[in-house]
Amino acid sequence: MEFLEFIKNNFMHTAPILTSGMIALAIIFERAQTLFKVYTIQNSEGFFEKVRELVSKGRIHDATALCNQFQGKPCAELIRSALERAHQPEELIMNAIELSRNKFAEKIQKRTSYLATIANVATLLGLLGTIAGLIESFAAVGHADPQQKAALLANGISTAMNATMLGLAVAVPCMVVFSFFINKANRLVSELEAAGLMVLDAIMIFSVGGQSHDDRRGGDEASERRAS
């Protein structure tokens, strides 16, 4: 109750901190949904292995259909963009992979850094409230009766410390969640890079295998024509 009374009596100091806290909550909710649900493929290793198997066997259409089952997932979208150029030169396939990787890496890391900024701002706003509270308390003590000085000073210091506590109450959770989100974002970007390498390798294996088969078949046909 005393803390709520502090917020009510010092709304001009606490409003910016509370506002930054609400913005942080909105970002945390959106990023948690996106990073841990929307962008994550459950059993990504199994998905990669299935795609590799299909592409290596030349079943590009089936591999693309598999990726379509994971629409909105960065890894699946990147693999699909590469498969759409599977019959084109390697350089064009690599361009598609690189463009997709850059596009989704930006989306994965989007808004996460705001949490660190909010944590720093909330701490500074708490400190600003502390300084403002101390200035007001010492100014009041300077013009108060000697019997009231101790009580006024104690109230002023209490108000100042509450401002610091409110700022830290916003800043500390923001920094903790920021660390979790950065770690998850880095893992998703690493999966993107692994997906690009995997699909490029599978396409090259299929291309080399297909060319070798065509060469052998062409050689057999030429031998048959010479024999006849």
What's the quick description here?
This protein is mainly alpha-helical and 228 residues long. The chain has eight helices and no strands. It has one domain (2-217).
Task: Write up this protein.
The structure is a single chain. Helices cover 87% and strands 0% of the residues. With 228 residues, the protein is mainly alpha-helical. The chain has helices at 2-9, 11-38, 44-56, 60-68, 74-83, 90-108, 113-142, 146-227. It has one domain (2-217).
Largest sheet, if any? none
Secondary structure: number of strands: 0
Helix/strand/pairing category: mainly alpha
Low-confidence stretches: 211-228
H/E element string? Answer: HHHHHHHH
Overall 3D geometry? rod-shaped
Tally of individual helices: 8
C-alpha Rg (nearest Å):
31 Å
Instruction: Kindly report how far apart the N and C termini lie.
Output: 102 Å
User: What portion of the residues fall into strands of 2 or more residues?
Assistant: under 5%
The helix fraction, in percent, is: over 70%
Number of domains: 1
What would the average pLDDT be, to the nearest integer? 84
